[in-house]
Design brief:
7-stranded parallel sheet, disordered C terminus, 348 residues, binds nicotinamide-adenine-dinucleotide, Rossmann fold
């Protein structure tokens, strides 16, 4: 029976949670990852239970048709991710995000496997209208500002998926992920919540870039992976694009205050808020969209999705993890409610 799911980028932050959810539901899962930003320890508990990880780029690994034996679905998450990484190496990011996606989509079409492509809220660029709806025009800045290159690659990935769905009957669904947070995310590549939490727990100051009045909506990764599996299971989703994100937004300054308050409640004090100009972090000419908020009505209509975790609950989970000496891998995180998580020591 064809019931195996491949996850490209499966050793990454979201991929590891998705792998856990699929494995816990009884599915065979194969992870494909070149470990560029992914980490073995993210998935070690799954590898110990027999889940297979194939190391290599998604393009290389999926070009071998034998890898599709028994495979019905591919979740394509592999990408160069993170504003810092993108600003540091736009050409490398463009090659990864375009070349691998073309290869993955063609391989899925040839094998008859359904595919879910993870796009990003970055495709909206600096679209000034809120909430952001899937059928809106996309508004990018000049090509001399490298930050827009990531959103453009993701928009091209969407075009490729939709085109193959229309012309070749590929079963492809596209999701535009908004800011996703949770255990195992790292702050190294510019992700704000893990950066704030680790600094607050260490009693260090939190750096807010710009004036801090920019807003974002943060969604717990466990809610996000539930949307991904439910969309894949929903036949009506193929050939369509869906926003996936929380429908509550918060200023980055208030986010910093909230993290400091929750850290203090957990006994970690000493940090304060510092404001840094964007140029000091990303160089001259960096642009940041002032506000991001998804319209999730299309997603709600298709699969009845609403987020179960509040921002405060996710922050408390992350602080508890950090206070106990590192990133926790909750044993039953994919399926658990906020009160039910259990701790599991990570193996290196
Ligand atoms: N985290 C977010 O808030 C967010 C928001 C929007 C979109 N996304 C998208 O979700 C997906 C997963 O992101 P994440 O946050 O888990 O980041 P991540 O960096 O943790 O995961 C990406 C994974 O892809 C792997 N990878 C990179 N290039 C590869 C290649 N050529 N072949 C195989 N593996 C490769 C990395 O090693 C890593 O494990 C990405 O496509 C990203 O663009 C994430």
């Amino acid at each position: 029976m064809n019931d195996t799911a491949i996850i490209t980028g499966g050793a990454g932050f979201i991929g590891s949670h998705l792998a856990r959810r699929l494995h816990d539901s009884g599915r065979e899962v194969v992870l494909v990852d070149n470990l560029a930003t992914g980490r073995l320890e993210n998935v070690q508990p799954l590898l110990d239970r027999g889940v297979r990880l194939i190391e290599g780029t998604a393009a290389e690994v999926l070009s071998d048709s034998a890898v599709f034996d028994g495979v019905s679905e591919v979740y394509h998450l592999a990408a160069a991710v993170g504003v810092k990484l993108i600003v540091d190496d736009p050409a490398g990011m463009i090659a990864t995000n375009i070349d691998d996606t073309i290869a993955v989509l063609r391989a899925c079409a040839a094998a008859g496997a359904a595919v879910l492509v993870t796009s990003s809220s970055e495709v909206y660029g600096k679209c000034p209208v809120l909430p952001l709806r899937e059928d809106m025009d996309l508004v990018f800045g000049p090509t001399t500002a490298s930050r827009w290159s990531y959103g453009l690659t993701k928009a091209l990935d969407e075009h490729l998926a939709i085109d193959l769905a229309r012309r070749d009957g590929l079963k492809a669904v596209v999701v535009r992920l908004f800011n996703t947070i949770g255990p195992r995310q790292v702050g190294r590549y510019g992700m704000v919540v893990p950066r704030f939490v680790s600094r607050a727990c260490a009693g260090q100051d939190l750096d807010v870039y710009g004036d801090g009045e920019q807003t974002r909506a943060f969604c717990d990764v466990r809610d996000v992976v539930r949307a991904l599996t439910d969309l894949m299971a929903c036949g009506d989703a193929f050939g369509r694009v869906f926003n996936v994100g929380h429908d509550r937004r918060i200023t980055i300054r208030r986010l910093a205050e909230l993290v400091l308050e929750r850290a203090a409640a957990a006994g970690r004090t000493g940090g304060a808020i510092r404001t840094l100009p964007y140029e000091a972090v990303y160089g001259e000419g960096f642009e940041d969209p002032p506000h991001r908020l998804p319209d999730v009505s299309r997603l709600r209509e298709a699969i009845g999705w609403t987020p179960a975790f509040s921002l405060e609950q996710t922050i408390d989970t992350l602080i508890a993890d950090e206070c106990s000496g590192g990133t926790l891998v909750p044993d039953n995180d994919a399926a658990s409610t906020p009160g039910e998580r259990v701790k599991e020591s990570e193996k290196a």
